[in-house]
Amino acid sequence: MQLTRRGRVAVALVVLAVVMGWLFGARSLNAIAAPLLGALLVGAVVLARNDDPTVTLSAVEAGFPGDDRTLTAAFSGTGLATVALALPAGVDGNTSGRRVTLPQTVDYELELTARGVHGIGPPEVTLRGPLGLLERTVDMAGTTDVTVYPQRYTVGDSAVLDRLFADELEAERQEFDRLREYQPGDPLRRIHWKSSAKHDEFLVAEFAPTERDETVTIVGTVPPGETDEMARIAATIADSALAADHSVEVATPTGHVPPGKGETHRESVLGLLARTGHGTTAPVGSEAADVEITYVQRELVVRVGATEYSVSAFLDHIDGTGGGSADDRETATVAEVTA
C-alpha cells in the first residue's frame, strides 16, 4: 500500500497543520489535521479489507500482420481501480492505464504486427482507496494468446504458381511412356535432347497417365534469422496449393501437419508456420518434399520438383510479370530454334 500524489499532498497538509498547531494552538490542528488523518485511516482500512479483483481475458482471433482485433477484459471486484495491459512485441495497441469502477469490462483495440504466438497479460491493476489518497497494486492472474500468421506474398497470377505444380511436380510423379515429334506449344523441358540429336529432329517425352498423388509436401529448414522468410514463402505456396484443390502437407523444425484440405486444415498449416522456429531437420525429410525451402551456400532457396530458385527468382516467377510464364518463354525459344 502506498500514497498517491493526492495522498502525499494530504500528508504534507497534516504536517503543516501540526506545525501551525504548535505555533498557534490546538484549534488549528483540529481544523485541518484531524479530518485528513481520518480520511487516510479510513482509506487504509477499506483498501486492506477489499478482496483482490480477478480478470478474464477473451480469446483473440488469429490473423495476419496488419489485421485489427478486439480483446475484452472482464474485471471483477469493487471500488476504484486503474487497469493497464502490457503488450508483447508483435502486437500494438493503446492499452495504457484507465481509471474504472469495478466490476467493469474493458475493450482493447489491437493491431497484429509480426508473426508468432504472442502471450498477452496478465493485466496491471491498482486499487485506489476512498478520496484517492492511498493505492495498492494487485498481483493478477489471467492471460491469453494471439496467433499471428506469416504475411503471404501477393501472387499476381494464381495460374503461374499452379503451373509450377503442374509442370515441375507432374513430370516428377509420372512414368515415361513414349517419344513423339515436337509440336508448337510443347514446353522446352519436355524435349528429349539425346534422342533428338540421334534423329535430327525434336522429340518430346510423353508420360503415361497414372493416378497421381495430389498432395504437395512442403518442407522448410533454415538457420536463425531466416525463419520469417521461410514461413512467409511456405504460407504463400500452401495457400495457393490449397486454393488449387491440392492436398497440402507441411513440415518444419517445430512440427508437422499431415496432408489435408479445407479451411480447418489451412488454419492448422498457418498455425504451424506462425510458431515455427529455426532448425536443420524436420519430421519429413527433404527427399520426400515436393517443395523445399532451405539454406544453400549462404542463400535461401526454393526447390520445386527438380528446379531450384533463389528467393528473388521465385518471387519474380509468381508475381505474374517478367515477360510471361516459363512455358511462354520456352515455347518462344523452341520456335526460334526451329525457325
Automatic annotation (TrEMBL):
UniProt entry keywords in alphabetical sequence: Membrane, Transmembrane, Transmembrane helix
Q: Where are the transmembrane segments?
A: 7-25, 31-48
**DUF58 domain segment(s):** 179-291
Which residue ranges are recorded for the region named Disordered? 319-339
User: Matching InterPro entries, A to Z?
Assistant: DUF58
Q: What is this protein called?
A: Uncharacterized conserved protein, DUF58 family, contains vWF domain
**Which species?**
Halovenus aranensis
